[in-house]
Amino acid sequence: MPTFAERLTQLQTEKKCLKKDVASAVGLSIMGYYRYERGEREPSMSTLIALADYFNVSLDYLVGRSDVKERR
């Protein structure tokens, strides 16, 4: 299963959005976003929820615990 960092990169690529736009939408600095993407830091629960909402995926999918994107 992919890691959170891999999933984050994959989702951003699939949605064809800029990193700065994702970061801004969820209240992160661009450097904070890069650190998550590189696996240097782990996000708080509120940031995870914001990212899952932004990409419209479940938390389990976002963190690599499931291959099912849809929220239930």
Q: Which features characterize this protein?
A:
72 residues; mainly alpha; 5 helices; 58% helix; 0% strand
Question: How would you sum up this structure, described in words?
Answer:
With 72 residues, the chain is an all-alpha fold. It has 5 helices and no strands. The protein has helices at 4-15, 19-25, 30-37, 45-55, 59-62. α2 crosses α3. The longest helix is centred in the N-terminal third of the chain and has 12 residues, at 4-15. The radius of gyration is 11 Å and the shape is globular. The model has no long low-confidence stretch (mean pLDDT 95).
Number of H- or I-type helical stretches: 5
Rough outline? globular
Number of DSSP-assigned strands? 0
Order of helices and strands: HHHHH
> What is the residue-averaged pLDDT?
95
Rg, Cα atoms, Å:
11 Å
What's the arrangement of secondary structure elements?
Layout: H1 4-15, H2 19-25, H3 30-37, H4 45-55, H5 59-62
What is the compact description of this entry?
The protein has 72 residues and is mostly helical. 58% of the residues lie in helices and 0% in strands.
